[in-house]
Amino acid sequence: MRIVQWFRKLASRNKWSMRLLGLPQSVTAEDVPGLVLIQIDGLSMTQFQKALQAGRLPFLEKQLRNGRWGYKPMYSGMPSTTPAFQGELFYGVKSCVPAFEFISRSEQKRHVSFYPQTANRIGDRLEKSGTPLLSGGHTYATIFTGGAAQARYCSQTMTLESIASAVNPLKLVFLLILHTGKFVRILGVTIIEFFLAVTDFFRGLVLGRKLIKELVFIPARILICVILRELVSFRTKLAVGSGVPIVCASFLGYDEQAHRRNPGSMFAHWSLKGIDDSIKDICKAADQSDCRKYKTIIYSDHGQETVTWYGSRYGIQVKEAIRNAFYDLNPDEKHVHSASYDNTLDGLYKKTRALIMNRPFSENLQKDSGPVSGDKIEITTMGPLGHVYLPGTPARDFIRDFAQKLVQSVHIPLVLYRDDHSIVAMNQHGTFDLEQQFFMVLGKDHPFGAQAAEDLARVCRHPDAGDIVISGWDPTDMPLSFNIESGAHGGPGWEETRGMVVLPQYLNTKKTYLRARDLRHLIQDYRNGYVSHEHPENSQL
């Protein structure tokens, strides 16, 4: 029997793959539990339940029906973005960024969270603030590494050196030979996805979308929805096969599709079937691992709102409208602004086009965050949550008057600013204390009203927050995004803050919902060999 097992190990494709990829060989630790964390980016509780009912998540539906797992809402925190959620989950730090795009006041630079330089800057700061959750583990396709011993396809590690070291033509040939069937399957799925993307391309043109943006979306969709998904799945299965104590895998396909076509669209939900298949394969590999007994936790970092683009409703770009309002109150100011680093989604599509057509790869990958001028108004608006940085040290009365003008004349649904120890919120219904009158700001039926208000106030007090924070959230109307997109997240909306978490019954808690720090404590307790549903820090949540 031992000889047979030895020959099986010798012939194992996964064992050879681990050698080719430089992964550590199997470490048997059956008495030490292992954990697999799977993030489905951008999937709200509402869309998760719809996908279960529609048969888009057949494996998950079966496990839930059989009682293997249970699920409940996951509150995203604020801003409702991946870096903020992962900062809290991986390091225990709430609201580590004020938005996906922001300006560092100390550096006077504009930052976007998925740029390697920005992710590194934030990640280094987080490492000093909390114990990394993924120490000794592996992580794939996340923003931050969480202290993992190995990280692939992550924003924080996406440098030229890491890419070059990962590419070895000879190793790729051997991997192709070892996994011919898998690569044939990937090729088949890629072809299907290509035809779906082309169909969606023509649909976008019919709806009046820009030709170049729709063209760029075709390869982006294939890369994220198929190739990256399969790479992440492959790496994760190898990791559990080698006994890595904790593995985190993030699947981005649904979020990408939902941004483009809205979170409830057929094309967004189509991507969930492929993610469900990957989860099934990972769970099978985890169950069959000879190294550890693994538990699997599946969660989403946030949801998405179906939105209307500000420019389509009012016929003007929001940055231009805000600047016009600023100059109306400051007629002596020069009507010029710094050569703005265009980090809107529209600008990023243009950069992608330039990258494909004529720009060197290294120039874009290694690009530093954009400089800004402290003596001019600066605005960041990537998504439905933005920041307005006023020149100099603006007077309190000016900030109040400017905020009122943004609501009344520029039609910003929600405007916030600091006033002594409170956060003032203005909308079409009046002026309110955000934390004391949150129901007038977020809506009386908000699932996380008081908690979301507290976190939104923390965003406004962030060292890199703008003098004024703007949001497209309106509980009485369809929310706005300040970029051209159909689905958005980042703000305090009901759907964008309400993700989901699927837990093994063994780890389930009595809480009606979790947030990232709750999940962090559950994971830490489980890895320490016991399950405690109450944690000393939970009283602060």
Task: Write a concise synopsis of the structure shown.
This protein has 541 residues and is an alpha/beta fold.
Explain what this protein looks like in three dimensions.
The chain has 541 residues and is α/β, with parallel strands linked by helices. Helix content is 45%, strand content 16%. The strands form 5 sheets. The protein has an 8-stranded mixed beta sheet with strand order 6-5-7-1-8-20-2-21, sandwiched between helices. The termini are far apart. The model is unreliable at 1-11, 338-346, 348-368 and 532-541 (pLDDT under 50).
Present the secondary structure layout.
Blueprint: H1 2-11, H2 13-20, E1 34-40, H3 45-54, H4 58-65, E2 69-75, H5 82-91, E3 101-104, E4 109-112, H6 116-127, E5 138-140, E6 150-152, H7 160-166, H8 169-178, H9 180-206, H10 211-241, E7 246-251, H11 253-261, H12 266-287, E8 294-299, E9 305-306, E10 308-309, H13 310-314, H14 318-329, H15 345-357, H16 361-365, E11 370-371, E12 378-380, E13 385-389, H17 396-408, E14 414-419, E15 422-427, E16 430-433, H18 438-442, H19 449-460, E17 468-471, E18 480-481, E19 487-488, E20 498-504, E21 514-515, H20 516-527
